[in-house]
Amino acid sequence: MIARIRCLWVGVILSATVWFGPVFAQQAGEGQTIAGFEVPEYDEENRLKYIMFGDFAKVLPNGLIDITNMRIDFFTPEGDLEMRVNAEKCLYDNRTKNARSENLVRIARDNLIISGRGFVWDAGSGRFEILEDSKVVLREAQRVVNEEEEP
């Protein structure tokens, strides 16, 4: 219940930012800036799917949200952390729940790290695509290979 209230409160803040953006523009530059935020997303059965964090979020005139130091924690249906995505900056569309970036991105799972430059994320389909300079690092892959070579 607390998480839902917090989600609603963040939604109210984001909505108020969009609604009152021009009022705060004089104080925050071109658009309202929110510092230190987190926004959870739940599935149909009220299980936590992911939480998006950011150091700063600035609502742009076109309605997109420019996020600095974005992090998304994805969870399994059982509630365990499954994957973490970090990006220096991204543009998030609160209406479609999609994000994109041209900056560095890092995806970490149990024994896998994927990094690169630029990404497109479609939250509806769960598709996360790194656009350039992809690099995959498998942790403990050498140990698995060596264990398989043993007689």
Polypeptide structure, described:
There is one protein chain. The relative contact order is 0.11. The N terminus is likely disordered. The N and C termini lie far apart (55 Å). The protein has 151 residues and is an alpha+beta fold. A hairpin with a 5-residue loop joins strand 1 and strand 2. Strands 1-2-3-4-5-6-7 form a seven-stranded antiparallel beta sheet.
Features:
151 residues, alpha+beta, lipopolysaccharide transport protein A fold, 54% strand, globular
Give a brief description.
By secondary structure, the chain is α+β, with helices and mostly antiparallel strands. Helix content is 24%, strand content 54%.
Largest sheet, strands/sense/barrel: 7 strands, antiparallel
What radius of gyration results from the CA coordinates? 18 Å
Order of helices and strands: HEEEEEEEH
Mean pLDDT: 79
Topology overview:
Layout lengths: L1 H27 L4 E10 L5 E12 L5 E11 L5 E13 L4 E12 L2 E11 L4 E12 L2 H9 L2
Antiparallel strand pairs: 1-2, 2-3, 3-4, 4-5, 5-6, 6-7
